[in-house]
Design a protein that fits this description.
- This protein has 176 residues and is an alpha/beta fold.
- The protein has two domains: 42 residues; 114 residues, no CATH class.
- It has a four-stranded mixed sheet, sandwiched between helices.
- The longest helix is centred in the middle third of the chain and has 16 residues.
- The protein is flat, with a radius of gyration of 22 Å.
- The N and C termini lie far apart (51 Å).
Length: 176
């Protein structure tokens, strides 16, 4: 017997029309964009303007993230010593974008960087031994202590030098 699913029904709330019209006019944006701003909580002109024209002062200090100083020091060491750096990416939009940006930045800094993006259907999500083994075979990795989902803080019989990965819950895992 197959369980029946009830169809999902999206409930979309309508933003305040007067506020939407006011923001659209003041910002020179369409009512759709203004409605999205209101839906995201930007109910005044200053907040909406700040969202539409961000600047570096609005960013958080990346060194507040646990392990960032150690990760940067390890990457600089790898760059200075011409050690291979493996970027273990992800197959979704932010993962592939982050992989591409990080790869380019590391290469611009003089790093010998490679990447691995797991195949969604054959490798699944997260760091997998098969992906690490492929990186070693391809020459983009070489050390051994690994912390990450699915590896349960195990020591691999592979050399991996440096790998940063981002999981969906935004925890960072470090290999060194």
């Amino acid at each position: 017997m197959t369980a029946r699913r009830s169809p999902k029904k999206w409930l979309v709330s309508e933003p305040d029309q007067a506020l939407t019209a006011e923001l659209a006019s003041a910002l020179g944006v369409s009512p759709i964009v203004a409605g999205l701003l209101v839906a995201r909580g930007h109910h005044d002109l200053d907040s909406a303007r700040a969202f539409l024209t961000p600047n570096l002062d609005q960013l958080h200090d990346p060194f507040l993230m646990r392990g960032m100083t150690d990760a940067v020091m390890r990457l600089l060491h790898a760059i200075d010593n011409h050690e291979p750096i493996l970027i273990y990416g992800d197959y979704d939009v932010d993962g592939t974008t982050g992989t591409a940006v990080l790869l380019r930045a590391l290469r611009m800094l003089g790093g010998t960087a490679g990447y691995h993006v797991p195949h969604r259907f054959t490798e699944g999500y997260g760091i997998q031994q098969a992906g690490l083994e492929k990186a070693v075979r391809d020459g983009s990795a070489r050390t051994s202590r690994c912390f990450g989902p699915g590896l349960m803080d195990s020591t691999l019989s592979l050399p991996i030098i440096t790998c940063l990965t981002k999981t969906k819950d935004r925890r960072r895992h470090w290999l060194s």
